[in-house]
Prior knowledge:
The chain has 1 helix and 10 strands; from the N terminus they run αββββββββββ. The chain has 2 domains: 1-40; 43-165, Lipocalin, CATH 2.40.128. It has 167 residues and is an alpha+beta fold.
Amino acid sequence: MVRPPQRSHLFRIKLTTWMTGVITGLVGILLLWFMINGTVGVAKISPLSTNSFSPTVLQATSMTLPTPIFQQWLHSREEDAGGVRVYRPMDYPFPPARGREGLEFRQDGTFIVYQIAPTDGNRAVEGLWQLQDNNRVQIEFPQSPNQNHGLTILECSDQLLKVQDIP
């Protein structure tokens, strides 16, 4: 004859199930918070070269760059000093100038450099970025390999980006 479970045993099972759900929810919230704040990396594999005559190089795009970097930046050449280039967001109140160069990092691994066009407007040249270290990024332009270069990110906030070319 099978005896029905005691009430205290059922209470422990329900409490354990409830606690498991609460802990799982808290872990999910913490992971989401870390991902939003750029503490947890997410990797994406994408082809670096589309040339059918050369082997495809895979790029591991890590999302561990500071979150504010993912926007359009304009070169604030008035603030440059000692080989450090300073960039500001598009809505920054720049002094008048005949065109400004800029750059943009996108979370999907796309990098865009905005060059001054002959009409003082901007011309966008698309490339790819790849994180080398915590603050070093390799920039590659599949259509113009002579423009490939590295950048060291010295400082990044919502209102300021300081970079230096890697020799």
